[in-house]
Specification:
about 140 residues; alpha+beta; six-stranded mixed sheet; 6 strands; about 40% strand; globular
Length: about 140
């Protein structure tokens, strides 16, 4: 199970880096719990797809230096990475977008159920992102 979980998380991030939202959604349980960084929990693939639509409209991001870890039973995983991005369009409640670039460390925690990601919890420093984009 450990190796299958590592492969699942890597497949999820490979899809993210390709901008392939359908492939990302295929990695998720139908009732996935998505803990948005410093935001509310959203539940379900539809909510996740809507989140990704907003993200792809406002940001162009790529992850690098991805390290994935999993528990021996494969039920939980974590990842750390560096997010390199461009702020494309102003996101609600955030400073105006002017094509600012940013690079910051991030991480995520996962629960796995029946070979799919049942929870995705993302983290990065919003304060550092705001500093870099001039907020």
């Amino acid at each position: 199970m450990h190796d299958a979980t590592l492969a699942l998380v890597q497949r999820y991030y490979d899809a993210f880096n390709r901008g392939d939202v359908p492939a990302m959604l295929a990695c998720l349980a139908p009732d996935v719990a998505h803990d948005v960084n410093q935001g509310p929990r959203e539940v379900g693939r539809d909510a996740f797809a809507a989140f990704m639509a907003r993200m792809n409209r406002c940001y162009r991001e790529r992850l690098r230096d991805i390290v994935v870890m999993a528990t021996p039973d494969g039920a939980r995983a974590a990842a750390e990475f560096v997010v390199d991005g461009i702020y494309l369009e102003t996101d609600e409640g955030l400073p105006p977008a002017r094509g600012q670039t940013y690079s910051l460390p991030g991480g995520a925690f996962f629960e796995v159920r029946d070979g799919l990601l049942a929870r995705v919890t993302n983290w990065y420093s919003l304060a550092e992102w705001l500093r870099q984009v001039g907020g």
